[in-house]
Each structure stands twice: as structure tokens, then as C-alpha cells.
Specification:
about 0% helix, mainly beta, globular, about 55 residues
């Protein structure tokens, strides 16, 4: 999913993708599946299934 105007994407994360003790509401950016760059402390990398997403501006 592309970010909107360079801004992070905000999602309500389905329970199947949520780690215990973390928020259901998340923000993120799309990266290549083989991304090996630095991940800031406190951030996670997850893969979401292909789907249609509603983008509201």
C-alpha cells in the first residue's frame, strides 16, 4: 500500500497480526519485502496480505 502524500499509513490491525501488549491502531510505511535497512527501536516489521484498502484523506 502506498503512503498518502508521503505520510504514514494508519490502520486498525487485525488481531492475527497484533503482538500481545501492542496497540491495535498502527502507523507504518510500505517497504520492499526484502528490506534489510535499519529498523528504529520500538518498531516492528510485519507483512500484510494482499487486499483492497480504503484510503481516506
Amino acid at each position: 500500500m502506498d503512503s498518502l502524500c508521503g505520510e504514514p499509513v494508519c490502520l486498525w490491525l487485525p488481531g492475527a497480526y497484533k503482538k500481545p501488549g501492542t496497540s491495535t491502531y498502527v502507523q507504518g510505511v510500505e517497504a520492499e519485502a526484502d528490506y534489510h535497512g535499519e529498523i528504529p527501536e520500538g518498531f516492528d516489521v510485519i507483512s500484510l496480505p494482499a487486499a483492497e484498502y480504503l484510503a481516506v484523506q
